[in-house]
Amino acid sequence: MKILQNVSLLPYNTFGLDVKAENFAEVSSVADLRASLSTGIQPVFLLGGGSNVLFTQDVQGLVLKNKLRGIQVIREFKNKVWVEVGGGEVWHEFVLWAVAKDYGGLENLSLIPGTVGASPIQNIGAYGVELKDVFVRLKALNLTTGKLRSFNHTACQFGYRDSIFKRQEKGKWCITSVVFSLRKSPHRLNISYGDISKTLESSGITKPGIDDISRAVVQIRTSKLPDQAKIGNCGSFFKNPETERAVLDQILETYPQAPHYRLPDGRVKIPAGWLIEQCGWKGKRVGNTGCYERQALVLVNHGGATGEEVKNLAKTIVESVVEKFGVRLEAEVNFWPLN
Ligand SMILES: Cc1cc2nc3c(=O)[nH]c(=O)nc-3n(C[C@H](O)[C@H](O)[C@H](O)COP(=O)(O)OP(=O)(O)OC[C@H]3O[C@@H](n4cnc5c(N)ncnc54)[C@H](O)[C@@H]3O)c2cc1C
Questions:
Q1: Does 339 have pLDDT greater than 70?
Q2: CA 267, CA 280: separation in Å to the nearest integer?
Q3: Global model pTM greater than 0.70
Q4: Architecture of domain 71-224
């Protein structure tokens, strides 16, 4: 493990932001992690695939790029397996590994960018499935003491795009590995969400397997989301707001077609993309940044944007949604430095 100085993070974040890390190292083992901590350089920032972080300035201290690899079946049951995966493994490559082995549960989460180690941070989710549905436990190294600890499902306090690692434990740990519980055949398929069943139908697939679902999800995501290699972005910039029913009722008076989903606690979830679109932001460009033309929830870098520009646009969007709907959007993306 080598610590380099003044390293551009441009290749390491999907927003395409050209900021520098004062110190930077790739870590491939727990020993590397401990050695980097023993230098005493602070603060330490853990970087996975950089697909959910907005850098608004150069990063002081030490950036550690997670390269801890390895995929291993650690327990075999009649109907399922437990698989332990290194935090630096690429998420989609792990999904493809599972699909190839005919282990089910991850197929709806195909093509989400980033690493396995970051997947519990915001309890990644897509097409009706969340990480918490397949999660068993994780191992994490404390960035102050260098000690390893195991977090089970309850300890992670998973919520909608949320976990303890986005709240009181934010920035304190490096997730070194995650254990998943994956089902053996026969699988429990989830094709009711979004366009999955429509996409399968249009391909003439009547009895889908998990590989068909994975391919359908890849097809849908590729058609809807910008390719971050071409247009810098972090996927959904905001969470879908969860509000009291009364707030929705007021919106429905003016917009009877407003989309919404009922939550078990009686509250409702309103798609943030719809709210932003109604404020006229979809496809709008502001300097080098803007809202993606096919999905208003995705803020993009048209080239040469700074993190500060993106942050300012996000702030203006939040204010316009508050003014029009009385709903305050919350960022899904992680800001550095913390906001
Ligand atoms: C085009 C696009 C589509 C997306 N679609 C989805 C989607 O459908 N669903 C969804 O949930 N997300 C989605 N995302 C967001 C993103 O892919 C996920 O949040 C992903 O888990 C981030 O992984 P990463 O390795 O890139 O994390 P990074 O961006 O590197 O880091 C994100 C945060 O986690 C911390 N972190 C990273 N790794 C570790 C670790 N090992 N230990 C401790 N802390 C760590 C970082 O410090 C940072 O605060 C999308 C992003 C893009 C660009």
A1: no
A2: 26
A3: yes
A4: 2-Layer Sandwich (3.30)
